[in-house]
Amino acid sequence: MAVSLRRSKLAIVGAGSVGATLAYASLIKGVAHDIVLYDVSRAKVTAEVLDLRHGLQFCPPADIDGSDDIAVCAGADVIAITAGAKQKPGQTRLELAEVNVGICRDLIPRLLEVAPDCVLLLVTNPVDVLTMAALEFSGLGKSRVLGSGTVLDSARLRQLIASSLGVASQSVHAWIAGEHGDTEFPVWSSASIGTVPIADFVSPDGLRLDDVARERIGRDVVTAAEQIIRGKGATNYAVGLAATRVIEAILRDEKAALPISSLIEGQHGVSDVCLSLPSLVDKNGVMGVLDVPMSEREIGLFQASADAVKAVARSVGLGR
Ligand SMILES: NC(=O)C1=CN([C@@H]2O[C@H](COP(=O)(O)OP(=O)(O)OC[C@H]3O[C@@H](n4cnc5c(N)ncnc54)[C@H](O)[C@@H]3O)[C@@H](O)[C@H]2O)C=CC1
Ligand SMILES: CC(=O)C(=O)O
User: Fold this and answer.
1) Distance between CA atoms of 116 and 319, rounded to whole angstroms?
2) Is residue 135 within 8 Å of 101, Cβ to Cβ?
3) Which atom of ligand 1 is nearest to the CA of 125?
4) Which of 55, 66, 91, 163 is deepest in the core (most CB within 10 A)?
5) Which ligand is nearest to the CA of 83?
6) Phi, psi torsion values for 216, nearest 5 degrees
7) What single DSSP character describes residue 125?
């Protein structure tokens, strides 16, 4: 008996550093049967697709295509938006809001015309504001619109903790919450190595994280992008992998806990703003935001992060 397998389709909007690297990581990890890139620059998208296509032999079976015609996104299950302006050295993510919300206002209705059943994943910065914009411009239910949020920042945090303590990143359980930006913060109160609370952890070599080390790590996460942008103009590899992880959780209906950005409705006294908290991700997008315990200090930081994102959202005509 012939088995018919429905092909999964990932559309990536923007074939710049982030979009092309996301396509590359998604191909290597085999997250979708069909991957397409859409960009306003025909020369750019054609060249990226050609280059990626030449590597297909070395990846799990998949097809890649691309165009400057938005119809290439037709029927996509997930649309990842990476199009738009990026930070120049010294610029904050929030300074990109006006121009990138404008791009989103034009893009989202046209994308939904060709892919009405998609889950929208925002990567463009400032990602929390852009997730709010996509919710508003799409009219989709809150579960179907999410941002890559602090999945990347949490990976940075885990790597820094892991290298400080001499353990594997995969054994570090720790999150960055709040804005993907300058007001983000590590949730130290629930961080652990394996099942050992980080405050109690001492490595076999006697390594532990004192308050000074934690402060330094928190600062290094916040300034990581700036450091990379000063050196090479953009960040692309880790964000490509982080966004691929979110897409994989959606297309495989994993119900995986990931710190994506989504509409916060009452957690820790915060509402009506998109921010990151660990959330379950399934085939419909956001299955639910988890009730993560936080210390009083962390709750204050979360509320301050909400205020910062709301102020920028309001300044570009979004939110209440
Ligand atoms: N959320 C996250 O963790 C991260 C977000 N970013 C953000 O991702 C965005 C993209 O960064 P890069 O790829 O480095 O920039 P880039 O400048 O290399 O690429 C942007 C691409 O968007 C395309 N584009 C612009 N307007 C478009 C439209 N209306 N429709 C289709 N394509 C359009 C451009 O032609 C260009 O190819 C920036 O906003 C950046 O800040 C970057 C790294 C991490
Ligand atoms: C650019 C950016 O948002 C990042 O690498 O975190």
Assistant:
1) 23
2) no
3) 39
4) 66
5) 1
6) -65, -45
7) S
